[in-house]
Structures
1.
Amino acid sequence: MTNSLLEMRDLEVAFTLGKQDYPALQQMTFQIGEKETVGIVGESGCGKSLTSLSIMGLLPGTAKITKGEIRLDGKSLVTSSAQQWSGVRGKDITMIFQDPMTALNPLMPVGKQIAEMALLHLGVSRKEARQLALDMMAKVGLSRVDRLYGDYPHQLSGGMMQRIMIAMALICQPKLLIADEPTTALDVTIQAQILNLLRDMNHSTGTAMLFISHDLGVIREVCDRVIVMYAGYMVEEAPVEELLDHPRHPYTAGLLQSLPGADKRGRILYTIPGRVPPLTGRRTGCPFAGRCPSATAICAAEVPQMKKAGEQHLVRCHLVAG
Amino acid sequence: MNRELLKVSGLTKHYPLPRQGLMEKKQVVRAVDGISFRIREGEIFGLVGESGCGKSTTGQMLVQLVKQTEGELYFQGEPVSGLSESRMKALRRDIQIVFQDPYSSLNPKKTIGWTLEEPLIIHRIGDKLQRRKIVSETLEQVGLDASYMDRYPHELSGGQKQRVGIAAALVLEPKFIVIDEAVSALDVSVQSQILNLLKELQEKRGLTYLFISHDLNVVEYISDRIGVMYLGKIVEIFEAGVADKGPLHPYTRALFSAVPDVHKRKEHAVLQGDVPNPIEPPGGCAFHPRCPAVMDICRSEVPQLRKVGSGHEVSCHIYAEGE
């Protein structure tokens, strides 16, 4: 593996409801190397977006980091002051969201929104910022950028808006780009364009990427390594081909089996019994024990630790021999 | 195969736009632009396409929530537009719809039991006791027990709400159901439960579905035949799951090639550009500005949907010689 750029160690994030703390993320430990693309996959409420918000220092008011460490280039982010954060956020770490329409300012021309990032973080003049923005817009595959610069978000299609978001995120040449479901709101042909663009930008600029998605197919297209999350825990981590072709955790295997597709026509789809436990109803033991087809007594009693199941393959399961 | 249940002929929906100036000519959005297809009894007909292609408008015209501007819809051989009010009411029993968002399609102030009983009251079916029985039996069929009758929508998870949405469509024992993106908002593990349920109900009750979705993996899994829409027109209809009879239209091919595959990282032919504005669709074949195989004729002449094999129709000039 290359040098680690981002390091998360034993992170715990809890929501305070009433007088009680409910941990929504537990024992999060992973690294992202320079230029690497790491995926996080999981269903609603598993904590994948919360993970990215903790890295951005944008946790909602009711949530707080109760334990652990996040380091960027060796510097701790958890102990940073609000002012230090804003120097990192938008410059070293940037983010693109699922819905570009709500993430862009509807009252400001799109080109200006990109230029503003450069103005804020790079210490350039207005004229230079405009030129940088125009160059960046061309780089993300937008055409007639001179005219487009003055257009407002509502005049653009969803695919174009997502390109604007990517231009905004990359203009300061960040070390890490967090992409949270960046293609979920787009049509498949536009999704293919955006995934190609993200892959190209990753190769040409060397920006590392944390790619969050619920779509395992999309994860396979863009990621080097992938982390599967369930109910606030990482349950499996491996290089993308290894994980999708040889899943070791029963949850990962169940997810893959329940995907519909032409190859499963005429057959009943596999289903994972039960549902994800709500935040307030999480018990001791393995988070997946209640739904696991092969759970034993130890699964209900003890949270399993992440253990090695192969070279670069980690699994949180009692039933996998270390 | 079975007899025809539903036929659509030249179905069109144009939405007029407000005039921009006094002398401007009136503009219309061609949401659906003269489509024709048939659905056989017991069949699952998938309808796919990207946002704004007109697939949902088509579904809404089939249940007559939206009235067509032109064209005709035949149900069991009878034209729907000429029906008397009482026949129309009977037809509304036979044709039902399940929507994408179970959160907004259930009344938050009413119990599930109330929501499911209302259609029975409207259609004057049974007395109070019999209606309760029908409701609890329907709930059971969608995998929920009778205790759900007294619950409110906010007490249910997304998957449970979608089960209630399906129960609401089933309670009048329809013959035909339009399923509009009904599994799109659900997580994978819940989605597979709902797909299994829909398939099981279809087989048990001999139902016919129009299955609308943007998710091609889902449509390929569940459908017998697939119709592909682009800018208000059907560009291809083909039988699903027949390997040597795969799609031919350049748009269908690009669409299916763009779907990421969990089993392998694939190189796909990426379609350039965006879908054009449906107010002023390009002349000739509407797909020609994005088509990788465009010819001169495509810019001037609108291709017609033609039969190219059994159960396979394509609207593309490339395949015009095959007549």
Note: Residues 250-322 of chain A form one domain.
2.
Amino acid sequence: MKKNKFSGVYAALMLLFLYAPIIILIVFSFNSEKGYSWQGFSLKWYKELFSNELIMKSFANTLIVALVASVVATVLGALAAIGVHSMNNKVAKGLIKNVTNFPLINPEIVTGISLMLLFAATRMNGNGWGTLIIAHITFCVPSVFLSILPKLRQINVSLYEAAMDLGCSPAKAFQKVVIPEIMPGIITGFLMAFTYSIDDFVISFFTAGNLQTLPITIYSMVRKRVSPEINALSTLIFVVVLAVLLFTNIRDIRKEKEREKKSAARR
Amino acid sequence: MKMKARWASYPYIVWMIAFTVIPLCMIVYFAFTDGSGSFTLEYIKKSAYHIPTLVKSIYLAAISTAICLVAAYPFAYYVSRKSYSKQKMMIMLVMLPMWMNFLLRTHALSALIEDNGVINTLLMKLGLEPLQMINTEGAVIFGMVYNYLPYMILPLYSIMTKIDSRVIEAAADLGANTLQTHKSVILPLSVPGIVSGITMVFVPSVSTFVISGLLGGSDNYLIGDLISVQFNSAYNLNYGSATSLLLMVVVIITMVIFNRLETEDSEATLV
């Protein structure tokens, strides 16, 4: 049992390593002065954060880009998964899967500059909205495609055929049988695309032109190293992420418990 | 399933050709031409001057990947042997920092180690000499490990949690001690997780320009910084493309080597 205790301590240390810097940021986001010696509690940096127009504007831009990009990526990716699933040509399928993997294994910086080259060569720079949204769709759509494709493979073919035997048109059968089955994949894909898009810095950095997104604004502030508002912002983001994760996980664990209860009752 | 829906994939195919295949071809095109569009090897030769920078990037990324692997392996194993709800809880704790933007995580580190940061402020209060931590190689490695550690833990954990406890018990029954069990049972079974963990840490580390830029100072210039400068400040697209090509070649070679390792090993376990 001694060994077990030791590995428990090790696990705790790992988590401490992951969280210590974040906890320190949270603590100093309430510091009344700049710098990292404690001067007293204050909400000053939160007030400054919310009155910082650049941060608020880039936050709005980030949300707009993420929403447009993830909706388009979801439609494109869902259609692609359905299309590829009904293909018989193995060579074409293999090629599509390889191209899908490109943006996932390529370093982000390479994806970013390759798109920048394309936009420069076709003079598509404009105001940044178009290029940024195109770039975001491009790195989001493979994940949507890959989260829907396995769901299609799990569908029982007989169900689709039965629907048609019972008088459904192929379109109706598709709507009644296929769509409900792949819906979880579509939702996962959409959420993945949305979070990737909100979080992206590297590819946006090369394709956004003059448009400011939140990560780009954060980068320019962090580079100067004197920006306590960033600590306040980190705290807020941390709290939001924590709330989302807790909410989804508690729901999951509760479902699991209910299932256990039900199966116990059946016995 | 007989759905006549092949057409549905055409928009995706067109999109991927236009915005993934063609842009990658353009990197190659720009790397081998000059500003007027005629063929030249000048920029490829020039980018060869940066091989020391490339070697340094590979070196720092390799050290960080090794540290991540060594640190994550026992942790992932520990988590994978816990009960279902405890596993879920701990994996959530690992993923939570991952969901914060990596710029903020890197900023959190610099707040710790910068000249007037948390650690030095504490040291000075205790009457000790402040340490030079930021703008060193160690700071860059620290940044890479801190940012990408979860990317090593998660694939390791997800493969280890599938290992049947009875296999481990069998090894113990047959007289293997902990070390032997790890060496001949758990480690070989974890190889696919190790391989994907290594690529998930190594690729972003070797190509980073943010971590080196924020924590490394001017002495720790990596290949990513170089590419980023050529595209943003110097705006030399040809030179930048040649350097990116160099980086791409390194990444592709690493992927090929590691994927081969994985397939060889899974064949070995099948026999």
Note: Residues 47 and 243 of chain B are 5 Å apart (CA to CA).
3.
Amino acid sequence: MRILWILLKKELRAFFVSPVAYVVLALVMVLSGYSLRAALSILERGPSEGSIVQWIFQPNWFWLSYFFVFPLLTMRLFAEEKKMGTFETLFTTPVRTWQVVLSKYLAAVLVYSVLWMPTWFNFKIVDWITAGQVIIPPGSLTGSFLILLAMGCFNLAVGCFASSLTSNQIIAAVISFTFSLLHFLGGLFIMVLGRKVSETFVDIINYFASMEHIRTFTSGLIDTRPLVYYTSLALLFLAFTHQVVEFRRWKP
Amino acid sequence: MIDVQDLTKQYAGRLAVDGLTFHIEPGQIVGFLGPNGAGKSTTMRILSGYMPPTRGRATVNGYDVFHQSLEVRRSIGYMPETAPLYTEMRVKEYLRFRAELKGLSGRALSQRLAEVMDLCMIADVRRRLIGHLSKGYRQRVALADALLHKPPLLILDEPTNGLDPMQIRQVREILLGLKPTHTILLSTHILQEVEAVCDRVLMIHQGRLLAHDTPEMLTRRLRAATLVQIEVQAADKALLAKLEALPNIRKATLDHEDGGWKKISLRVEARQDVREAVMELATAQQWKVREIYRQMPTLEDVFVELAASDLAR
């Protein structure tokens, strides 16, 4: 536990002394600022169905740009250590592989969580400026941030895995971006096709289609199934990452 | 301290280390010698628990490098060849991080940090970013890191690589200062370094062990001819022929002439000293001699000879 904490501190520091965290933070702030503007313009048009939370999180373009965050946060984690040769110094001290993998992953999750703070503040600002005239459903808000976190945990684990495969950060970023996007688009695509295929097939697809999860969570319905789904996928990819990093110790 | 049995490492069909067997006693400084690509770094990586051997076994401080990796890592201070460091960290910050990983804390940590920074002469750059340091400083930061937890065994892969002559001397002094309490395995391809600090030499070539002995014994074992140089003043035309007529001299060659002084190299049969005979001849012939000097065979000669015989096999 002590080792994990030491490693985690170092990883967090690495995020904030390099420009990466700030660049990604700026990107997310621009994104959420634009989403807010778009949502407010819906409000300007007069009464409409839904809530400001849904208008901010549901538009597709928001989710598409959102996937740039993961490669940016994770590509460096393992690839850089491989390239610089620092794995050699790291793994010749008494640390275990899982401690290294978990510390890097947790650091990424923490930084990722910080990224959404400004968005949360946006809601507070709307509430303050309109003196509570705009209703921000608390369930919707909680649900949105919860699904953001759950999807983040999964995509960050994919990013870690991609980074552990190579010593080239660009390749890591491409793998992670492609995989995250394919997962997202796969669900989206079949949802569009949904009307032409059988009911059970659509049900199965809905189980892993991110768009469907976003729809339910942003409307305030907190469903544990997607949470379990994303957590178990995250654990699976972390286990893969662990195996890739650990492989060095076993390769004859 | 180190016990290696039939250690073999194969990379994609190529043998990097081929059946190494050796034993290192505690308290020795052992020089690991060989040309680039001989398998030194690979052996050291295996000993430090970073990668497993393909075949054979190795124990460090009584622990198996593969099965008891964590215990092995606690007993060694390892400095990899390129001295990889986190370039975005500051020197003191980095060493503190490393010391924490190695289990130091509190006052003991701060004290030890100051000690190693003083010892490795990096206290003046403790607030600088590692990425901005010169190669010499980085090398010494890596060395300080290896020393942090006072490990009984130091495995240093080319510790003086990239240092200037002054710094090389300083590192040698550090190593000699550590000798009473540490066992040190250091790799290098600089032979003078081995002659200066090592008690034992391990020579490897193409993954095979060529020799394991003290530097003195190795040079004594040398079969190659040695060289004696003399500088004489003599008008004698048959000078070279007369010298060659002496027993045990294979060949005399005139290297260089400078105002009557002739510099002559004599190739002498192995393990023979001809200086007295040469002096007697000179006195008898009334030659003036201003220098006579026997070149001792160096480890370089030993290495070249051993490597050549290994290739011939």
Note: The first helix of chain B runs from residue 40 to 47.
4.
Amino acid sequence: MGNEFVPLSLPPLLIGCLAALACALPGNFLLLRRQALIGDAISHVVLPGIVVGFLVTGTSSTWPMMLGAAAAAVVAVALIQLVHRVGRIEPGAAMGVVFTTLFAAGVLLLEQSDTSNVHLDVEHALYGNLESLIWLDATGWSSLLDPAALVWLPPELTRMAVVLVLVMLFIGLLWRPLAISTFDEGFARTLGIRVGPLGLALVIVSAIAAVAAFDAVGSIIVIAMFICPPAAARMMTDRLLVQVGWSALFAVASAIIGYVLAGYGPLWLGYSDSVSAAGMIATVSGLILAVAAMFGPVRKGRAA
Amino acid sequence: MIDIGYNATLVAIGAGLLGVAAGVIGAFLYFRKRSLMSDAISHATLPGVAIAFLVMVALGGEGRNLVGLLTGAALSSLAGLWLVHWINRNTRLGEDAAIGAILSVFFGFGIVLLTVIQTIGAGRQAGLESFLLGSTAGMLRADAYVIAVGGALALIACLILRRPMTLVSFDAEYAATQGLRPGRVDMAMMTLALAVTVIGLKVVGLILIVALLILPAVAARFWSDRSEVVALLAGVIGGVSGAVGAVISSLAPGLPTGPIIVLVAAALFTVSLILAPTRGVLAGVIAQLRFRHRVHMRQGLLALAHGHRVHEGYTLRLLRRAGLIRADGVATSEGQREAALAAQDERRWTVLRGRPEAATLAAHYDGLTPIDTVLTSDQLTELDRLMKQGSDHGHATIRRAERGRSDG
Amino acid sequence: MNDLSQTAPLKVRGLTVSYGATPAVFSADITVQPGAMTAIIGPNGAGKSTLLKAVLGIIPRLSGQVEVYGESFDSQRARVAYVPQRASVDWDFPTRVIDVVQMGLYRQLGLLGRVRGQHRALAQECLSRVGMSDFAARQIGQLSGGQQQRVFLARALAQGADLYLLDEPFAGVDAATEKAIIEVLKSLKAEGKTILAVHHDLSTVPDYFDHVFIINKTPVAEGTVQEAFTQDALQRAYGGRLASGLLDQLFPVANPAPPASFGAGPA
């Protein structure tokens, strides 16, 4: 059993879990700050970012593209702020203006440039290719202890793990100021917390998580994981720390159940091919949210 | 083979009509602060398209009938809309979270269904991917008719409903007293947004159709503060974007229709953002600089008049540049004169604001407006006389003067 | 009272704040006396809250200097506590009453400092000072408006500051809360702390406060209640918006000397 599971299923499962966690953790704060849709905006502008990264460097290696995507996310956030503040446009509409424009520009650039020899297309950007992240050098569970085989782990796994550590460090170190400034921004300012830079840092960390996750699993999961697990966790508790814990649990559960359903569900129904794991993970996170919204102990808010 | 030129023209007309309808509807969504609702609507169409395809294939059809696919899109997006509404009403989540959850989950489920379609072998021929980004290449004439007629119908519906929508988006409670039902008008608005989205799926694609509902409205908002004008202008901007974008994209290969339409709209938005009078960025920056200048100048002069020291560097620079103080901070003779005038103005305001009968006039006070731009010269004389006397005799005169002024 | 040898807890010079192109506060000067309870009063839209927020750096100021205990606000943050207007926070936030009070310990705890027994005890004590110790484990949104206001006061107490800035502490609270809050404020004053509060109820000014700062975009009057809280100053600040009934109540007889019951008149 391990002979097939370890090389073919373990890496995508792990990558799915790491990506889900990396998005869901900052998603808690975005949700509470009513910036839930930032994840949506970021995942749209990733496309123009990687296209520009590719055009500038001329290579399809991962780092230039990821840098391009991260830069695009920061540019998008800056533009949203500009349109919102300077143009006095309400935040939702400002966001809509910016991400649709950048996404359209990305699609046009992609069509206009010769990217046929690299694996770069809109569909891949949307639903990634989790299933293809396999570890051919593994022969079984024992490979996990074999340095020669470990070298050939999919690089996405390492990257995602590094990013998750970064996200956890950020949230762990800045937990207190993040919580205070999310709850009561004016009070946070009087304490000397630099609310503006902190908010920007949160968005940038979310963008890094989104870009890394996007590279591995496509942007659907990114949007779903930013919102659904934290939203479901919101129905479970009235304590921030507990909420973050629930969101992590829901994120991992979505990733595992979604991956298994996508890979084996069709077989159980008598079909031979599997369906999109990314799409299925998003679907499962939605089902978890639905259950939490109907039965969660604190699903109804108390405030007026 | 169908005549491409004729088809492209039809598509351009359809896209133009669609753009007008989307612009007008988008303006009302914007007034109601629900622009991003369209994002949920559009992403939620995907499972419907896929299910409609599967159903049509199961019934032995070809599966690509546009009307059938769009009906499916409308139904699933209606379900998405209802769920956003439900989450918003029955849980503690805000509308933004509800929108994000619905759009990602529906879209994810749609992707699952697309891979199912590939699995069962109807695969590549389905061409359902074209709904993601829109594609007018190789469009059937019947499809072009559907889009043109659909765009025209949506526009007509907008025109009929524009008055109730204006009333409700301006003040829902007042509209309710006028016999309108805000809930229903909102629903009609959402249904129209949904109709525009569905009709636009084939042309602009579901990821970008939301742009047609947001960009023209936001661009138009820069040019006017009147809702009817904004809605009209949004229609014009949307129509131009749709038609021009469709034409440009038909001129050369590699110019996908949806993105081109969006980029035309984005260009119009950028121009509006920067150049619009009063609300535009350029006008705003100039006004802000002028305002800062006035504040510091006035405060500097008042400080001079009261013999206080001026501490702020910017104020000092302004006064120095205007020749009102010397390098050592002492007022020049002109500076003394100006300072005395400012102080007199402030004193006059103080007296005026202490008089209950002059409350309307006193409300003009903001620390910057010179009093002689608010009072007539007669009123000024009266005010000065009062300041000298400090008596109550002038009340009636001021009141009379104020009445005369508001008549004029 | 007016010990001028002590530095003023708060000194503001030439403060102008604007929303858009009209000043909300224009060229305000204010000097808060140490150990005093000062009310900021003025009509709606006079810039009372704006003044407070600009002093604290919550909203940007167009011009003006702010000194706290003779130095920049930045260097004196630890000595200032702020109680915001109740409406300004997210009541649905997943946090308990005791967590909110512990936010007041932020400057003491820093980023990663552990919350120890002494911190918990301090937070609990602050809660009991405002009469809310039974509610420590409740979610903040479950409380009534007055109870929420008291929790915010407890958070300010936890900061252990010398200068307390309060934005409409009595707005929309029940009578019991109003009484509890004023008791706490008076005990703070007895400890020598300084209090500056935006206040909207003119009828309670003489009872609650000893100094007033009257503003309507620009300062109208400043000083002790006896000096500055006059019919003339109120008239100038409020214009026609002041109900004459209230004026009669505050200043019962216009011409003869005010009766002994008003203010701190001759006994």
Note: The domain at 2-135+153-295 of chain A is CATH 1.10.3470.10 (ABC transporter involved in vitamin B12 uptake, BtuC).
